Amino acid sequence: MSQLEKIYGVHAVQALLKHHPKRVKQIWLSEGRSEPRLQTLLALAAENRVQVGQAERREMDAWVEGVHQGVVAEVSPSQVWGELMLEELLERTETPPLILVLDGVTDPHNLGACLRTADAAGATAVLVPKDKSATLTPVVRKVACGAAEVIPLVAVTNLARTLEKLQQRGLWVVGTAGEAEQEIYQQDLTGPLVMIMGAEGKGMRRLTREHCDFLVKLPMGGSVSSLNVSVATGVCLFEAVRQRQAKR
């Protein structure tokens, strides 16, 4: 059991059963929990012959840090993809790729929210540097509401070198920066695209910024100087979605 991870929350566990059922070894429900919203989860568990047991809620509270909704699964370790997976993804992509890069985002809640948004926007993958970045954890999976089991999260050793390779493949690199002269709504986002979001406060690292083809900003009309990175990610990705749909 020590090598297994605990994933919690109805959506996260259900998504894992749907997309990667072989990773799920055991599911625990809090005693007395049997409402209708669990029927899909239980049906998937039965279909994949995953054992479902019951446990006391206070015992489950000690297993995980967070709101588990009375559902905890013991699963094989998380999968974070390497750079070779990125090459394979780009080869398979039939439409212009849309890659989200999170440069120095360390908060697991922000990573989870960004994964959820990237999946909703139809992004090809999410890239993060291996160092100084959040990675897949039970908290990330819970916040992502199942998206962490669907959209590839790729950790790269050298982000600047990876950006260079993507540019050589014909992708345009667009970075977000508060001091940029051009607003995102003025930038063409319809082609093969890498969208870079920096950490809150610090923004993109210098070397990352130097590898951008374009810098864009969000127009800020109020008293705050910036948005939460997951909110800004949603605005930027769905502007790309809007432009691409309009072009079609």
Description of the structure:
The protein has 2 domains: 5-75, 60s Ribosomal Protein L30, Chain: A; 83-247, Alpha/beta knot, CATH 3.40.1280. The mean pLDDT is 89. The chain has 9 helices and 11 strands. Helix 5 (108-120) packs parallel to helix 6. The chain is an alpha/beta fold. Helix content is 36%, strand content 21%. Strands 7-6-5-10-8-11-9 form a 7-stranded parallel sheet, with helices on both faces. The N and C termini lie far apart (50 Å). The longest helix has 19 residues, at 229-247. Keywords: Cytoplasm, Methyltransferase, rRNA processing, S-adenosyl-L-methionine, Transferase. Residues 6-81 form the RNA 2-O ribose methyltransferase substrate binding domain.
Write out the CATH superfamily name of the largest domain.
SPOUT methyltransferase, trefoil knot domain
List low-pLDDT spans: none
CATH class of the largest domain: Alpha Beta
Spatial strand sequence of the major β-sheet:
7-6-5-10-8-11-9
Radius of gyration, whole Å:
19 Å
**What's the number of extended β-strand segments?**
11
Query: What number of domains?
Result: 2
Task: Count every helix, treating DSSP H or I runs of 4 or more residues as helices.
Answer: 9
Organism: Pseudomonas putida (Arthrobacter siderocapsulatus)
Domain RNA 2-O ribose methyltransferase substrate binding: 6-81
Subcellular location: Cytoplasm
GO molecular function: RNA binding; rRNA (guanosine-2'-O-)-methyltransferase activity
